[in-house]
Amino acid sequence: MTAQAYSTFTSRLIALWFVIAFSASALHWIKTPPTVPPLPLGIAAGLPLIVFGVWYASSRTFRDFCMGLDRSVLTMIQSWRVAGFVFLVLYTHQILPGMFALPAGWGDISIGATAPFVARNWGRRAHKVGFVLWQALGAIDLFTAVGLGSTVSLMHSEGVPTSAMTVLPMSLIPTFAVPLLLIFHFICIAQVYTQPVSERLLFDRATESMRSC
């Protein structure tokens, strides 16, 4: 499959994923009582990551496609996370608990606000350490938010629940946005530590030429 074909296919796959996540939320398939572990939400958030991981590990052409993506663009997409201020607004209206909303909100705002700078200045190999550190912090923020969102209501059943995250529109964050952005973080980090496709192809061709001599 060519890079263009992969681009078209993955775009359609992401669109289908969004439709499924939206439909599942609209049908209340992921909604659970505050005292019940949010297993459906965990499945919805984790399954795309598993699918991506298996695909990435088993297909060299897909890995090459991922390595060919522009990491500056993938990083710039993270800037939408400044919308994390919504968590803070919902906290002030006692719709979300502070133990979840405050770290999730401020973490997203921090990553989103710095994303344009990182995309413009740290995307090159000369700033590899800073770039990877920022990507890792962005991924940790997402994992922390999901972990807190899944456990806060269980630990404090008498407090403000996180049930708002299981209904539209907030449910699209854990079921679609979070796993997609985690995938982008992974690709960006992998690109830094993976030999560029063009260089590897030249190496492979040189090796084949030497063997044929």
Supply the key terms.
213 residues; mainly alpha; globular
Give the SSE map:
Blueprint: H1 3-26, H2 39-58, H3 60-67, H4 71-77, H5 85-92, H6 98-121, H7 128-155, H8 172-193, H9 197-212
At a glance:
The chain is an all-alpha fold and about 210 residues long. Helices cover about 75% and strands about 0% of the residues. Helix 4 runs antiparallel to helix 6 (about 100-120) and helix 5 (about 85-90) packs antiparallel against helix 6.
Q: Give the biggest sheet.
A: none
First-to-last CA distance: 31 Å
Broad shape: globular
Q: Beta-strand percentage? A: under 5%
Helix count, DSSP H or I runs of 4 or more residues: 9
Rg: 20 Å
- Average per-residue pLDDT, rounded, comes to 89
Detail the poorly predicted runs: 201-207
Number of domains: 1
Query: How many strands in all?
Result: 0
Order of helices and strands: HHHHHHHHH
Structural class: mainly alpha
Estimate the helix proportion, in percent. Answer: over 70%
Transmembrane segments: 12-30, 36-57, 69-92, 98-119, 131-152, 172-193
Keywords: Membrane, Transmembrane, Transmembrane helix
